[in-house]
């Protein structure tokens, strides 16, 4: 036993040089925050509830920043092989989860119609729902949060085109792209263009424009800052980021467009960037061994949690809460949803087929 323990410790020590525990923490923590966005109704209370509420509202934005922070080298180097692999890793779970949601909901609806008399529990679906979900990732009856995956695919292709065809001017184009997206938001053109559309089209397309600055921000942070050196001045960075988040929150230093799809404006983008830097410089690599192992494990299934949480929460509220009179949208429910999603992700990871694991990793 001593030998195995020593080997495990050595393995963790080696991984410390290669594994980013700050990114792992953000992926694990923010995937839980996404659950809070959909299934936690509390918005009032003292610290830490107020702080957690603010973070959950920008969780998806930080995910955009993380995604493009991590893929900056792929774009800058013009590695077509990595680009194709990246797009495949985004498209495969996007399409598969749409089909899985449709099949699972249809099956559960059949069971409810056969064995339950309460018509209010039944789930009405049509092929139209599946088509909307595959086309734009946001069918109201299946899994609307997958608009994020749809926009991530489009943004990845867009940024690749920018770097592939503008070469040495790419970073200038990135800045112009970000400014143009903000102009589109603040002028009201984005809402005027996509606001009248159906629900399934409105949010994926409207939020695509709102997500462009976040993708650009992730790239610029990776290009302009040496984040490893920032960790050498972590106390200063933590103080600046925390004080800046407090100031822009309570002094309302940045305005947001009057009409938007929830993620528009400079305020949330700046707040999300500051939160990203704040979490990034926290010394998670110095945490106890069990915490580091937990971060490695939980972060591995962040995609699975994101893709499954809406369905797990929907069925929890629709069946358990309505059948047994349980209170809906509580913090405890969110914890339960997170645990269930982790367990389901772990179960899927045991499948020997490589592509199946792309559904959750």
Keywords:
mainly alpha, disordered N terminus, globular, 18 helices, 361 residues, 0% strand
What does this structure look like?
This protein is mainly α. The chain is built from 18 helices and no strands. Helix 2 packs across helix 15 (289-300) and helix 16 (302-324) packs across helix 17 (331-349). It is globular, with a radius of gyration of 21 Å. The model is unreliable at 1-14 (pLDDT under 50).
Explain the layout of strands and helices:
Blueprint: H1 2-18, H2 21-39, H3 49-57, H4 59-70, H5 72-77, H6 80-115, H7 127-136, H8 147-166, H9 170-186, H10 189-194, H11 199-224, H12 227-230, H13 234-250, H14 266-281, H15 289-300, H16 302-324, H17 331-349, H18 354-357
- State the helix count: 18
Q: What is the gyration radius calculated from CA atoms?
A: 21 Å
Helix content: over 70%
Structural class: mainly alpha
Approximate shape = globular
Q: Tell me the β content.
A: under 5%
Average pLDDT:
87
The tally of beta strands, per DSSP, is 0
User: What is the H/E string?
Assistant: HHHHHHHHHHHHHHHHHH
The rounded distance between the terminal residues' Cα atoms is 30 Å
Q: Major beta sheet, specifics?
A: none
Summarize the structure.
By secondary structure, the protein is mainly alpha-helical.
């Amino acid at each position: 036993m001593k030998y195995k323990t020593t080997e495990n410790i050595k393995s963790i020590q080696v991984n410390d040089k290669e594994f980013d525990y700050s990114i792992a923490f953000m992926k694990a923590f923010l995937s839980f925050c996404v659950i809070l966005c959909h299934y936690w109704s509390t918005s009032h209370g003292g610290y830490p509830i107020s702080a957690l509420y603010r973070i959950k509202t920008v969780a998806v934005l930080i995910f955009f920043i993380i995604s493009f922070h991590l893929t900056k080298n792929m774009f800058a180097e013009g590695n077509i092989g990595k680009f194709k692999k990246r797009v495949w890793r985004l498209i495969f779970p996007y399409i598969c989860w749409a089909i899985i949601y449709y099949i699972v909901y249809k099956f559960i609806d059949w069971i409810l119609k056969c064995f339950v008399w309460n018509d209010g529990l039944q789930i009405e679906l049509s092929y139209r729902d599946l088509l909307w979900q595959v086309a734009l990732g946001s069918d109201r009856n299946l899994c609307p949060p997958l608009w994020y995956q749809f926009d991530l695919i489009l943004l990845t292709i867009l940024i690749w085109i920018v770097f592939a065809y503008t070469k040495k001017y790419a970073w200038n184009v990135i800045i112009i792209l970000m400014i143009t997206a903000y102009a589109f938001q603040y002028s009201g053109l984005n809402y005027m263009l996509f606001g009248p559309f159906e629900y399934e089209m409105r949010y994926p397309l409207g939020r695509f424009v709102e997500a462009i600055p976040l993708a650009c921000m992730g790239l610029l942070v990776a290009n302009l800052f040496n984040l490893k050196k920032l960790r050498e001045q972590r106390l200063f960075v933590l103080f600046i980021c925390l004080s800046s988040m407090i100031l822009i929150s309570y002094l309302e230093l940045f305005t947001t467009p009057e009409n938007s799809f929830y993620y528009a404006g400079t305020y949330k983008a700046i707040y999300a960037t500051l939160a990203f830097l704040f979490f990034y410089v926290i010394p998670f690599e110095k945490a106890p061994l069990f915490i580091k192992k937990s971060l490695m494990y939980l972060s591995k299934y962040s995609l699975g949690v994101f893709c499954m949480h809406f369905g797990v929460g929907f069925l929890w509220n629709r069946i358990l809460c309505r059948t047994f009179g349980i209170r809906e949208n509580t913090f405890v429910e969110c914890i339960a949803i997170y645990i269930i999603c982790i367990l389901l992700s772990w179960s899927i990871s045991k499948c020997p087929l490589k592509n199946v694991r792309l559904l959750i990793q």
